[in-house]
């Protein structure tokens, strides 16, 4: 399967797993490249256009995540609420999911109440334990992504995936030809 490299106007790429500043404490991706299935790339472009119409940008923290990377995350934090069990498959390993935030036109991320990969109940979309501003920003991101054809994951304000994600095959690094690992 061919995945597309993401290089879009109004989309900044900041792959969290290409640095040691992530939940594992080590670099997971040897090669920092943002890839998505063509359907997901099209939906992300729609979301970027919608964000731009509101004077905003998107910042992508993760997109395609090879199965090998999913195993590393699972070993570091084996909680199926936040990390998909790699034996069951991850939406990221299908190239059909993206982790992202909304930034102002200046490129500074809006307040979402928690950082990306804060694996606690505060990260739930419906959390009222974060500020009203953060709740409004999460709702704004949700509106943009839903209008662009994405579904949200209730436990993580940053995670969006394509509908019927199971139709996309799981991909290992070698099968995707990504050479990320």
Automatic annotation (TrEMBL):
Keywords, comma-separated and alphabetical: Cell wall biogenesis/degradation, Dipeptidase, Hydrolase, Metal-binding, Metalloprotease, Protease, Zinc
InterPro entries noted in UniProt: A_A_dipeptidase, Zn_M74/Hedgehog-like
EC number: 3.4.13.22
Molecular function GO terms recorded: D-Ala-D-Ala dipeptidase activity; metallopeptidase activity; zinc ion binding
Active site: 156 (proton donor/acceptor)
Record keyword Protease present: yes
Leading EC class: hydrolase
Residues with site note (Transition state stabilizer): 65
Superkingdom of this protein's organism: Bacteria
Substrates-to-products reaction catalysed: D-alanyl-D-alanine + H2O = 2 D-alanine
Cofactor: binding details: Binds 1 zinc ion per subunit.
PANTHER family associated with the record: D-ALANYL-D-ALANINE DIPEPTIDASE
Function: Catalyzes hydrolysis of the D-alanyl-D-alanine dipeptide.
Protein name: D-alanyl-D-alanine dipeptidase
Species of origin: Skermanella stibiiresistens SB22
């Amino acid at each position: 399967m061919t995945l597309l490299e993401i290089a879009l106007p109004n989309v900044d790429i900041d792959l969290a797993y290409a640095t040691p500043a992530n939940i594992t404490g080590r670099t997971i991706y040897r090669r920092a490249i943002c890839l998505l299935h063509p359907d997901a790339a099209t939906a992300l472009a729609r979301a970027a256009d919608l964000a731009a119409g509101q004077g905003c940008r998107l910042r992508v923290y993760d997109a395609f995540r090879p199965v090998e990377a999913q195993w590393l995350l699972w070993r570091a934090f084996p909680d199926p609420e936040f990390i998909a069990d790699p034996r069951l498959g991850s939406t990221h390993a299908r190239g059909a999911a993206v982790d992202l935030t909304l930034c102002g036109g200046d490129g500074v991320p809006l307040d979402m109440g928690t950082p990306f990969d804060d694996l606690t109940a505060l990260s739930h979309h419906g959390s009222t334990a974060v500020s009203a501003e953060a709740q409004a920003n999460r709702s704004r991101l949700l509106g943009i992504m839903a209008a662009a054809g994405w579904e949200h994951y209730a436990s993580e304000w940053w995670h969006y995936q394509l509908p019927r994600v199971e139709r996309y095959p799981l991909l290992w690094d070698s099968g995707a030809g990504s050479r990320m690992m």
